[in-house]
C-alpha cells in the first residue's frame, strides 16, 4: 500500500511557517532564556529545579503524543521487519569483527576467542530483549532516551542523552577515519598516505578529508529518505554477507584443529578481558529501536527485525572467530589485519583485498544506518528541550530530521578531520555498557512499579532489591578485577545478586504486563543483563572510568546551566511553541487508543 500523502505535510503545525528558519525562539523558546534577568532568576532556582527534574518522569502517552508533536511534522511510517533486519546487519557488522578478533585472540584469549564472542553475545542479546520490549511498547524515535525518561526520570534520561550524543559523534568519526585506513589497504598504499600531514600535536597531525567526505555522503543519503536508505543498505549488506560467507567457508577449508591447542593460553581471565572488547562488535543494534516511529507495525516488525538480525549476527561472529583460531596459532595471528595475513599465509594473498573490501563496505553501512538512527535519538532529545528544540524539527517533504542529522555530521566531521581518537575508544565502550545497564534497570522498574498503583512498601522493597542487585554486580566485577584467581568474594556477591533478584520475584507484584511482546523470565533476564554489563565495564580498566567521570562532570555543568532550566520550563509550561501554537493536550480518547 502507498503511504497517505498526509505524512508529507504538517498535520499539526503552522503550514505558513518555513522549515528553514533560524530565529532565537526556534532555539530558546523557554522563559528562562528570554533575557539575562530571567536567566539569572532561573540560576537562583537551580537547586529547586534540579530536585524537580530528579523525580520528574514522563509517561507513554506524553512521549507518543505531546512530545512527538514538537517536531511539527510526522516521520513517515515506511519500514517493515525486512528493512529492520537488514538495518541490523548494516548497523552491527562493520570493521569490528575484522579488527577486534585478531587483536584479542593474539593478546588475551587465544583460540578461546570464540568463548569471548559467546559471552559478549549473550550479554548483547539480553540488552536486545530489553530494547525490543520498550520499542514495541513506546514506538518513538528516542530509543533508550525516551524509555529512561519514562521509567527513571528526566535526570537519568539526561545522563543517557549526553552519552548517546557523545557516542554518536565520536563513534561516527572513528568509523570514518577507519574507512580511510581500509581504503589505503585496498589500494595497497602505505599507512596514512591518503591523509594530509601537518605540524599539529601527535594524534592530531594527520588530517583526513576523505573521512569528512564519507560522513557527508552517508548523511545526505539518510536525509533524503529512510526508505531509500533502506534500499541502499539492503543491497550493500547483501554484498557484504556474500563476502562474509566466503571468508567463513575459505577459513574452514584451510583449518587445522591442532591450532586450537592450547585452547586457554591466557586463562579464563583472558576470555572475559577479550569479551569486554569484542562486545563492541555487537554495537549499533540500539539504532534499530530508534526507527520504531517509522515502522509500519512496531509490535510485529521490531521483534522480528531486532531479535532476528542479532541472533544471526551472533552465530556469524562465533563462526568467524572459530575459523580464525583454526587457521593459525594464536601467537601468529596478526593484530592489525588478522584475516588478510591468515589468508596470505595459506597461499590466498588475493583474499586480503576481498577482506578489506568487506570491511570497507561494512563501515559504509555502519555510517549509513548510524546517520539514520543517531539523528532520531537527537531529534527526540531535542523534543524534550535538553538541547535546543530547533533540532527536533522534521522536514515536511522528506519526513526526516534534517537539522539533527546536520548537527551530528558537522560535529563528527570536525573530529574525524583532526583526531585519531585512540584516547576516546575506551570511553565509548564504558558509556555504551552504562546505558545498557540503565536500560535493564528501567525494564525492571517498568514491570514492577507504576504511579498510583504500587504501594509504598512494595516500592521500598523494589528499590532495596535493585540496590542489592547493582551493588552485588559491582562487587563481582571489582573482585574479578582485583583478584581474578580468587573465589571467596563470589561466595558473597553471587548469592546477594541471586537474593536480590529472587526478592523482586517473590515480594514485589508485577504492576504491568506487556501488551504484545515482553522479555521472558523477568526479573531474571534483566537482572542478569545488569550483572553482565557491569562485569564487562569492570574489565575495561581504570583509565576508562577516569575519562568517563571527567566527561560526566562536563555534562553535569551543561545540565545545571542549561538543561535543567529548559526541561523545567517545558514541564511547567513556561515556553512558547516553535510550531506557532500551543501543544494540544492529548485527549482521553487518544490516550486510550495509544494504550490499545
TrEMBL record:
**What compartments host this protein?**
Membrane
Name assigned to this protein = Cationic amino acid transporter C-terminal domain-containing protein
Keyword Plastid present in the record's keywords: the answer is no
The protein's GO terms of the molecular function aspect are: L-glutamate transmembrane transporter activity; L-lysine transmembrane transporter activity
Q: Where is the Cationic amino acid transporter C-terminal domain positioned along the sequence?
A: 517-566
Recorded hits in Gene3D superfamilies, A to Z, give: Amino acid/polyamine transporter I
Q: How does it sit in the membrane?
A: Multi-pass membrane protein
Q: What keywords does the record list, in alphabetical order?
A: Amino-acid transport, Membrane, Transmembrane, Transmembrane helix, Transport
- Identify the main location: membrane
Q: Name one Pfam family in it.
A: AA_permease_2
Which GO cellular component does the record give, naming just one?
Answer: plasma membrane
Q: State the similarity comment.
A: Belongs to the amino acid-polyamine-organocation (APC) superfamily. Cationic amino acid transporter (CAT) (TC 2.A.3.3) family.
Tell me where the transmembrane regions lie. Answer: 78-100, 112-134, 155-176, 206-224, 231-254, 266-285, 306-330, 350-373, 427-448, 460-481, 487-508, 520-538, 544-562
Enumerate the PANTHER family for this protein: CATIONIC AMINO ACID TRANSPORTER 5, INNER MEMBRANE TRANSPORTER YGJI-RELATED
Domain of life of the organism encoding this protein: Eukaryota
> What organism, scientifically named, is this protein from?
Rhynchospora tenuis
